[in-house]
Amino acid sequence: MPKSIIIDPEQSFAKGAIHFSDIPVNAYSKSIEEEKANFSPRDFLDIWRDMCAIREFETILNEIKTKGAYKGITYNHAGPAHLSMGQEAAAVGMAFTLTPDDHIYGSHRSHGEILAKAFSAIRQLSDARLVEIMEAARGGLILRAVEKGYSGSVQGLAVRFFVYGAYSELFARETGINRGLGGSMHAFFTPFGIYPNNAIVGGSGSIAPGAALFKRVNRKPGIVVCNIGDASFGCGPVWEGITFSAMDQYRKLWDPELGGGLPILFNCMDNFYGMGGQPFGETMGVQFIARIGAGVNPEQMHAERVNGYDPLPLIDAMRRKKQILAEGRGPALLDTITYRISGHSPSDASSYRSKEEIELWQRADSIPAFHNKLVANGFAGEDALASARAEVEDAVFAMFRLAADLEISPRVPAGSELVGAVMFSNQHVERFDDRQPEFLRPLAENSRVQQIRAKIRTPTFEGKPVPKMKAFNIRDAIFEALVYRFAIDPTMIAFGEENRDWGGAFAVYRGLTEALPYHRLFNSPISEAAIAGAAVGYALEGGRVVAELMYADFMGRAGDEIFNQLSKWQAMSAGQLKMPVVLRISVGAKYGAQHSQDFAALVHHIPGLKVVYPVTPYDAKGMMNAALAGTDPVVFFESQKIYDYGEMFVEAGVPEGYYEIDLGEPSIKRRGKDLTILTFGPALYAAIAAAGVLEERYGLSGEVIDLRSANPLNYDLLVESVRKTGKVLLVCEAVERGSVMQTVAATLTQLCFDDLDAPPVVIGSRNWITPAAELEHLFFPHPGWLLDAIHERILPLKDYQPGTNQTLGELSRRARLGI
Length: 819
Ligand SMILES: Cc1ncc(C[n+]2csc(CCOP(=O)(O)OP(=O)(O)O)c2C)c(N)n1
Ligand SMILES: [Mg+2]
Fold this sequence. Notes:
The chain is an alpha/beta fold.
């Protein structure tokens, strides 16, 4: 049932012009009198107090960074402090109207934003809920530190709780809101709707759309605000995130009942600078970030530029944007003008801007300006404001003092394994929500399901090998595992390029278009960063997601999202967040240099990722089942060469029912006693062929073990085998240098040194580009190479004539040349 919007040539060639509408620039013109209808006197005061608290929070940081002390408290803060002095009105204006259900994602410069969002949430939550949140956070540890001697309101206590938790976080204390593992640039606290802040410029740009997607798919209230800087609009992933957010399908193809366009606001904290370069007039040509909306969709993302140096115009804009998003007309874009009076960091001498410019903005500083507005309009007197400010500053200082105190706010002790303990969550979650999973038609009626039911799941049938067409193959195995979880977990969705009608790049999803509604299986733009980033955002919000990258070679396009986001948020949250993402990545062949490389080693190197590469139907189903029941990010490699391979190893065949294979457990594919051959990926089949020749011609029995998983990896079985054989050959189809197998060989050398008759030998593909299909035999390891290497470097074979040069001399020649 393909999407059927007919593309008509006549219409496509019709003459016309593309019309743009005006993008408002600082259009706000409400008087205070008019605003009195929108704000209570208390609101005005709260806005001002919030701005003062943020200023004081950062003033203290600036002082300790530059002078090592504040009001007699000495403190050496080793970590970063990207201050946002001057941007307080933008932070408070952004957060004021947001509810705890509205989630913010931000950047390295987000102290002000997290404080403003927390203050706003605290004002809206009931006392009972606040107490519940504070008791739950870090097991009540943060609350215990701030409640001593305090007798004020619960809201006041919650403010202390958050300011203290934030300082503690910055100072890497156990009492930090993320136990000190998030730190200044990444601090967040989800109960107040504060989601991860990102030290990768524009990092939130691809993640926040996934959060908004989660809200739509799972019908959750609230919007998502992506607070990113003006310079981040030069980042590819930000553009990809915008494109992903603006897909027409949300409004044109998805069930209208879901609510339409993604409820996301890209809020540019436009302070006119990157670190030391100006996007305006120097590094970019858009002049107004708001202009970008015009290129994205006919609604121009409802973009506008707004004065964020005054909280009121921004609050007004936020109210209007929220309304647009609630009506399903998202995404929206705000170009919020602000200015960073402070340096990029405390060590910044502001060499890239003039003193005069800074002074101009200091004169317009939002805090005194708002103070004057309050006084001029009779909302508060000078004295009342002065004492309110002193009160706020004292409270912030008191929390700093507590956080700086190592007795009250300890660090994790020396020798702690805390970080190791939170790298993975290792949980089993059947479903992330209890509602009924949505299907278009019952799975039992699905043609693919029926077709698979007729397939043969065993290695042989009636004594003969199973013909390819009839064999239950790897593609079917992955499909079966996905379908199982789709039917159990209503939050589970899958997306990627050509996932729907095409059936996924390699037809794993074929048949699912008929079964699943759009919002559970959809095509994304060709935006690998947005695919991986949105998967991260979706998971951070509490849903299970399967994202697909067509070819391993395209991983570079999603580099940050895989290396810094998917992998790190569980640990950076000190175990508070889960990352139930399966990233399916297909490894190509026959398509030459840019479509045929196995990049497993790259992700193997990245802490925080599980990396698996099953190559039999039995393993593929069991491991996909395990990945889809877990709570950790799993990079799931699949080889295009062998999608249609049937089961060749498990005599009883691939079970129709559910089973899991523990990720990290290798599997013996052929038993032997003379030589161990370890494989990772489809090299298993070359190893099996080589083991056959060894047996037939040389009477040697090779034990072939498929690692199946690169990380985690249980070495017990490998060590046992190597102890028995004393010899080990390791084979993979990734280029040999820096491969997973090189790491395994090095580890085995440590673990089995006394048992080895020869050093472990690694055979991978040549350290070249992958050549054309016709030349692949020069590149990928084949059984002959394995025998040659065994003969030359492990165990001379009688009367053996090597066909290739696998000697040590050749090894060093290649290394010398870097090839
Ligand atoms: C991907 C990436 N590139 C470069 C940096 C170094 N860096 C940190 S902040 C910054 C400037 C960011 O400017 P903008 O997005 O406008 O945010 P602002 O600092 O003004 O808040 C740069 C280049 C980084 N952290 N991440
Ligand atoms: Mg900036």
